[in-house]
Design goal:
The chain is mainly alpha-helical and 304 residues long. The chain has one domain. The protein is 68% helix and 0% strand. The chain is built from eleven helices and no strands. The protein has helices spanning 3-15, 18-31, 40-49, 61-78, 95-116, 120-151, 156-161, 167-189, 217-239, 249-273, 282-303. Helix 4 runs antiparallel to helix 5 (95-116), helix 6 (120-151) packs parallel to helix 11 (282-303) and helix 8 runs antiparallel to helix 11. The protein is globular, with a radius of gyration of 19 Å.
């Protein structure tokens, strides 16, 4: 860990809200609209932080703790993600298991906060979130295990930093499967179309958004910022499947940020060309991603 680790972590905290703006701009261009400003997420966060939170009399401290725990766990998980070949703030062997369950802890806190309201709609969203996340976590771990098998390092930093671009020449079928599987993981974890619509207001069709309907003010700002950080985290992880190493630390960082933003553009393209899936189809999509990840791991193990 060196000064660049803190610099990259800090820049990630600053740049994360830019990714939802990129997604929205791509969707607006496809729809022929002017769309929201690129920095709209920053304006929204600033506005929410200036407001007061409103709490129902039926809620307890569990409801108030949900946004704080969700943001804290996302910040902690981000500390394990290296960027542009630099060492992360934290790293140890098999730390991707820790990252997976730190993120699960944040999701668990959000689910408890939704249940604490006593709302039938929020309980419905919490049930859906728990179901899909239970299906998704093994795919997340298998995908990273495949990358670790390729690189020979069983920490998140080693797996992402040691996966050379030259591996695409010999292991491109397995890597393509891993990219496809992890992209589905990204869409599900970040509640994007075709899994969920972050802009919908129809409670019967929402998954994540229905769980945060009763949050307001700074609490909602924490939730929105944690969602942006989570999107940044997954975009950086997916971008690391095709690392670019120029040799100059500044250029390497710019290349890594550019790849993360390309992933955000890809999300916008998917949301512009696909409709939201029926809820009964989502487990089938997750199962297909799991099959891709398992097949890729088998191919990489046989070729190791």
């Amino acid at each position: 860990m060196d000064a660049s680790s803190f610099l990259h972590y800090g820049l990630g905290l600053v740049l994360a809200p830019l990714l939802p703006g990129i997604v929205n701009r791509v969707k607006a261009l496809f729809a022929g609209r002017q769309g929201k400003p690129l920095l709209q997420s920053y304006y929204d966060l600033a506005k929410l932080l200036q407001k007061s939170a409103v709490y129902s009399k039926t809620t307890t401290w569990v409801f108030r703790a949900g946004p704080i725990v969700g943001l804290a766990t996302t910040l902690l998980a981000l500390g394990f993600v290296p960027l542009a070949g630099s060492a992360p703030l934290c790293s140890f062997t098999a730390d991707f298991f820790f990252v997976a369950y730190v993120l699960a802890m944040g999701r668990f806190a959000t689910i408890l906060a939704a249940l604490d309201t006593g709302s039938a709609f929020e309980g419905m969203g919490a049930s859906r979130e728990a179901t899909y996340s239970a299906l998704l976590e093994p795919i997340f771990l298998v995908s990273l295990l495949g990358l670790a098998t390729l690189s020979g390092g069983f920490s998140l930093a080693a797996a992402l930093n040691n996966a050379a671009s030259a591996a695409w020449a010999t292991h491109w079928p397995a890597l393509m499967l891993l990219v496809a599987a992890f992209f589905v993981v990204l869409l599900v974890e970040n509640c994007r179309i075709p899994i969920d619509d972050p802009n919908t207001h129809l409670e019967l069709t929402m998954i994540h958004e229905v769980m945060v309907l009763d949050h307001s003010g700074p609490d909602l700002a924490f939730i929105e910022y944690a969602a942006a950080l989570k999107l940044w985290l997954y975009c950086c992880l997916l971008a690391a499947f095709a690392p670019i190493r120029i040799g100059n630390p500044i250029l390497d960082f710019l290349a890594a940020c550019g790849l993360a933003m390309l992933v955000a553009i890809a999300i916008g393209l998917v949301e512009s060309t696909m409709a939201r899936l029926r809820l009964v189809r989502i487990p089938q999509l997750i199962g297909l991603a799991g099959a891709f990840a398992a097949l890729a791991l088998i191919l990489l193990r046989r070729g190791a």
